[in-house]
Design a protein that fits this description.
α16 packs antiparallel against α18 and α20 runs antiparallel to α22. The chain has an eight-stranded parallel β-barrel. The protein has a six-stranded mixed sheet with strand order 2-1-3-5-4-6. A five-stranded antiparallel sheet has the order 21-22-18-17-26, with no helix packed on it. It has four domains: 125 residues, Chitobiase, domain 2; 369 residues, Alpha-Beta Barrel (TIM Barrel); 220 residues, no CATH class; 114 residues, Immunoglobulins (Immunoglobulin-like, Sandwich), CATH 2.60.40.10. The C terminus is likely disordered. The chain has 22 helices and 26 strands. With 883 residues, it is of the alpha/beta class. It is globular and about 90 Å long. α1 links the parallel β1 and β2.
Amino acid sequence: MPHPTSILVTAPPGLTERPAVDWALSKLREAADARSTGLHVGTASGTETEAASGLSIRLGSPDDLRRTGGPACPEEAESYAMSVEAAAGDGRRLSIAATDDRGFTYALTEVAQRLAAGGVASFEVGESEVQRPHVPVRGIQRAFSSVHEDSPWFHDRAFWTEYLDHLAMQRFNRFHLAFGMQYNYGTGFESRTATDNYLCFPYPFLLDVPGHSVRAQGVTDGERDRNFDALAYIAQETKRRGMSFQLGLWNHAYDYGYDSPHWYPILGIGPESHAEYSAAGLGQLLERIPEIDGLTFRVHHEGGIHEEGHETFWDVVFEAISGVGRPIEVDMHAKGVDQALRDSVVKPNIRPVISGKYWAEHMGLPYHQTSIRPQELTPFAWPGMNRKMTGVTDVERRFTRYGYADFLAEDQPIDFMFRMWPGTQKLLLWGDPAMAAGFGRMATIGGSRGVDLCEPLYFKGRRGTGEPGRRDPYVRDDLRLGVHDWRKYRYTYLLWGRLLYDPSTDPEVWRRFLRDDYGAAAADLEEALALLSRVLPLVTVVHGVSGANNHYWPEMYTDLAVSFWRQMTHYVYDTPEPRTWEGVSPFDPTLFYSVAQYCDDALGGSLDARYTPLEVAAWLETMAAEGSAATDRAVEVGDPADPQTQRTLIDLRVLVQLTRFFAGKFRAAVAYALFARTRDVAHLEESARLLEQSHKAYGEIPALVAGVYQDDLAFGSGAMERGTWKDRLMAMREDAYLLRIELQRARAVEPVSPSPALAQRESRTVVPGRFETAERYAHGEPFAVRLVVDAPVSGAVLRYRHLNQAEAVQSVEMSRVGEHFEAAVPADYTTAPFPLLFFAEVQVDGEHPVLIPGLGASLSDQPYVVVHSTAAPATSGTTSTQD
C-alpha cells in the first residue's frame, strides 16, 4: 500500500518518461513536497492502485476517459480533459486525458498549482474540466541587448531553470530568444557611433565556421564556445518543458560604418562573402542545436541588408535552412516584406510566417486598429534618402510598419502572427485580467496564429547604455532582485500565458497566485492593478505621438507642449504640425478623435460617433480615483516588510499620478485648442489651470521613486528612452510658463465676447444592439447586414472595410425596415480575398451618435465584427452576431 498521504500516478507505458511529461511530474513532486512532509509521487504503468487519503492520478487517452464516464477531450493539440471522483478515505481520483504531451503537461501543472494552493480538498468530487487553446502561438520574447547587463542571465543555469519553469506553467508554448536588436540599422544611419555589437551579428560570437576565417575581435575561442554552450542549453531546457524554441537573429550587419567604434569588430568578412558565410554559420548552428524549432529575421534594411535586391541575400540564407533537412519555421518580421521575399522563402522544410506589430511598437488596447494613421499610408522621404537601402519599407510598402497591413488575405499561403513591442510600459508592473483576456480573444484575427510578447524590461541597456550590475532597475537593497529581476512580473506572465490559452480562465487561477504573493492585500491589489494597467495602453492608442518605441515612452513621458509657442523637435519624426497636443493623431483615427478634430466638430455642432478626448479624460479620472482607493486599502492590510508588496504599491502610486497627469493634459489641450479657434480667454484660463494640475500630478512622481529606481533608467541612448521622471519636469514648466504669458497678453488684447456654442461630449449612453448576418459572405455577392437596436434610433450608418490596413473605411446609409436597420456591403466590394470588418454609427434621439458594438467598460472588447468568406478555411473565425 502507498503511504497514506501519497500521490500515485498511473500512465500508459513510456508516457511519464517523455521529457515534457517528466518535467511536469517534477513540478507535481515539488508541490507535494511543499504541501506536506512525506508526500511524494510514485508512478506505475497500468495499475489500478489508488492513494489512500491522497491523490490517484490516471493518465490515459480520450477513449479511456470516455469509457469511465468522463468528459470528452477536445481534438485540438494542447488540450486535455479531467474528472474528479472520490477515493479511499478523503482521497480523490483524477482521470486525465490529453491529445499530446503539452496537454498532459498543462493538466499536471494545473494539478500541482491547485495542490500547492489548497491541498487535496481543492479537488471537488464530481467536478470536471475541459481545456483547449484559443491562441495557437503564445510566445514570450526576451532580448540580449547589452553585453554588460545581459551576459549574467544568459550564462546563469539557475536563472533559466526558474524562468522557463514559470513560463511553461503559465502555458506559453514558445520562447523566443532574440539577438541583434541593439541597433535599428546596420546600414550607416541611426546606427552611427554604434558600440556594443556583442551577438548582433551572431555567428562569430557562437561558432568557428569551417572555410571562413571570421571572428569577433576580443572574443576568445573559449568565450565563443561558452556562448554556444549557453545557447544550446537554453534551447534544450526550453524543449524539455514542452515549449518550442525560437531563435531571433535580428541583425545581419557586420559593420555599422566608419564612425562606429565597435567594441568587438568583425574581422575576415566582406560583401563578397557575407551571404555565404551567414548561410554556412546558420546551417552549422541548426545542425549542432537540433532543438531550434524556428528562426525570426528582420529582413528589411534595419536588419543590415539593403532592400533593393534583398531577396538575393536572403535566398542564400533560406536555402541553407532548407538544406538542414528538418522542418523549421522562418518568421519574417513584417515591415518591408514584399512579394520577392515571400517567393524566396518558399522552400522545402521551411514553414514561412510573417510577424507584424500589434499596435505599432507599443501596447495598445486588445482590439486591432480600425484604421491606421494617415502618415502610415504616405511614402516617407528625406533629403539624401537612399531608395536602394530603404525603398520598400519607406516608400513602396510603408503601411507594413505598424499592424497586419495586407497580410491577412484568405488566399495568403504564408501564416501571419503578431508581436507586442515594448514601447508603452517597460518598467512598472502590469496586470489586468480583462485586457489579457481581450488579447486572447483577438490575437487570432483573420486567422492569425497568435502573438509574441516582448517581456518587461525589454531593451534595458540597449545601444551601448548597459553597465555592469545595472540590469536590475532598483537601487533600494530590499527591492533588488539581481539576475532574477523577472520575478517582479510573475503575475504579468501568468495573466498573459493563461488568458491567451483560454480567455475564459477561472479567476481562481490568478487569485490563488495573488493570495500567495500578497496575503490579505490580494483582492485590493488585483483591483488596483486591473484598473491602472488600462491607463497607458489607452493613452498610447489615443495619443499616437510616435509609433516608435525609442521615440515615445508614455510610462516616462517626454513632454509635448499644449502651447503653440513651444514647438517641439523630439517628436518631429512622427507627428505632423502643429507639433503640440492638438496635432497628434490617435493610432486609430476612425475610433478616436484627435484634439483638433474634436474641437472643430464641437464648435461646428457636428460631432460624430468617435470617442472624444474629454471622454478619454473622464475614463482616466475614474481609473485614477478607483485605482487610488484600492491602492490605499491595500496599504492598510498589506505586509510592509514584504518586498513584492512594496514594489507593487510603489508602481501603483506612480501609475495613479500618471493617470491624473494624462487626464489633465487631455482636458488642457482641448481648452487650449478651443481658445485658438474662438479667442475666448475663458478657455485659455481653463487650459492654464488644468495644465498646472496635470503637471502637479506628474511632479509628485520623482518623490515616489527617489532612492527606489535608478536615476538613469536606460533603454537606449536617446533622451526619450533613458533618465527618470524628474528629467521631464523642466519641459513641462516651460510649457506652463509660456501658457501663462500668453494668458496675460490675451487678457490685455482679446475682446470680451461669449464663446460660440459647443457640442461638448464627456460621456455617452450605451445603446444595446446586435448585428444579424450570414455566418460568411460570398465573393461577388452583396453581404446583407441587419442591425437590431433596443433604443429610439433615428438613423444608422454601416462602416466597413477589408481586413487590409492599406485601405480606407467605407460607409453606406442603413435603411429602416420595421424595428431594425438594414444595409449591404456592395457586391463589387466582396470580390477581394480579405475578411470583412464592420460596425455601425447610430443616431440616438436626443444624443450624439454612438458606435455599435463600441468599447465596453473594461476597454477590452472588439469594436467591430469580423466575417470571413465562404472560400476561407473552416477554421477561420467568424462572428455573425454581436451583442
